[in-house]
Design a protein that fits this description.
mainly alpha, about 95% helix
Length: about 70
């Protein structure tokens, strides 16, 4: 009987460690997904910055065009 209780105890300990391992794996996945999310956000901000730079160039070219028209 004592051996059976010890066996059960070890099995429960093994299950506990397995659940802990799963928990750490899920945490790792969570951090990886968060990292991907932040990277996508960074890319989004970079694309927005490029868009605004293109708009700025467009306005600068328009200003030059108007200045040249004034001389014409």
């Amino acid at each position: 009987m004592s051996y059976q209780l010890s066996a059960i105890s070890y099995q429960l300990s093994a299950i506990s460690y397995q659940l802990s391992a799963i928990s750490y794996q899920l945490s790792a996945i969570s951090y990886q997904l968060s990292a991907i999310s932040y990277q996508l956000s960074a890319i989004s901000y970079q694309l927005s910055a490029i868009s605004y730079q293109q708009l700025a160039i467009s306005y600068q070219l328009s200003a030059i065009s108007y200045q040249l028209s004034a001389f014409g």
